[in-house]
Amino acid sequence: MSLKRIGVLNGPNLNLLGRREPRHYGTQTLAEIEALLLSRAGAAGAALIFFQSNDEGEIVDWVQANTDRVDAWLVNAAALTHTSVALRDALAGSARPFVEVHLSNVFAREPFRHTSLLSDLAVGVIAGFRASSYLFGLEALVEHLGARGETGADVAE
With DSSP H G I counted as helix, E B as strand and the rest as coil, what are the percentages for the chain, rounded to 5? Predict the structure, then answer.
C-alpha cells in the first residue's frame, strides 16, 4: 500500500481553538487536533502536512506550493469557506480531491454560514462533530483515494 500524502489546511482563527467560542468549536486546541490526526494517519496509511494561517494569500500560496507534494487535501477553510473565490480556484487548480470539514454544524448557525464556495468541488463535507470532523474527514479521504487507486506523491521530507 502506498502512503497517501494529505495536506491539512486550516483557515483564519483556527489558531484560537480551545479558547474561542467553545460552545461551537469545542475545547481542543489546533495542536491537539493535529495530534489526534497524526495518531490515526499511520494506521490509515497517510502522511500529513499541516498549515494554518489567518491570511488568505498565504493559504493560497501554500496550496500552490504544496500541490505536487500531496495526493489530497483535508480543508477547514473556516470563514474563507463562505468568502474566498481565490481559495476555491487554488483548490480547483490543484486537481487534488479534498474533503471540507467544519467543527461546528454550519447549517445550524447564521444563514451566511450555510453557503460554501468550496463544497461543490469537495469529495464530501463533514460538519458538526467538533474535532471528530477531522478524523471522519481523514478516514473518508483515505478511503476515497484507495477506491480511486491513487498512489502516494513522490515527496522528499
Answer: 50, 20, 35
**Nearest-10 crossing angle of helices 85-94, 56-66:** 0
Instruction: For residues 20 and 23, give the distance between their C-alpha atoms in angstroms, rounded to a whole number.
Output: 9
At position 64, the amino acid (one-letter code) is Q
Task: Place 39 in a pLDDT band, splitting at 50, 70 and 90.
Answer: very high
Handedness of CA 18, 129, 8, 57 (dihedral sign): negative
Whether the Cβ atoms of residue 49 and residue 91 lie closer than 8 Å to each other: no
- Residues designated as active site: 25, 102
pTM higher than 0.85 for the full model?
yes
pLDDT band at 50 (very low <50, low <70, confident <90, very high): very high
Burial grade of 42 (CB within 10 A; 0-12, 13-18, 19 or more): exposed
Contact 46, 118 (CB under 8 A): no
